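Moderator note: this is an archived Q&A kept for reference. The question asked for a predicted structure of one protein chain; the sequence and the answer are reproduced below.
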Amino acid sequence: MAQLTVEGLGTFEIPAKKRLVLALTDEAAVDQMHACGGNARCTTCRVEFVAGEPSQMTQAEKDILAARGLAATAGLRLSCQIQCDHDMTLRATSRLSTTPNRVDAGKRPGDQIAPPAVWVAK
């Protein structure tokens, strides 16, 4: 199990390899955005790492962050493209409660990273 610390909310035990977006919603009870359903298309599931940022990312995450001009933003990652396989500390910056004109966070993402993960260096 990995420990996930969400600033202002606490520390939570997360099952190994669980998608971060699901850990945020299920274990940490964060109203985490995921408008595209966790498919690395919209960037609404953004989080900001304080410690424990993964050294790899999926090619899909790398591509969408670059396309949106966010690739150079230190610590900014997509929670839908990260597996909980080590301890992490982050800020949940993209939440339904702070997003105007949204009635829900998006369709619940599946258990597996989508599109299928092709891991690259970040």
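Archived answer notes: The chain has a mean pLDDT of 97.
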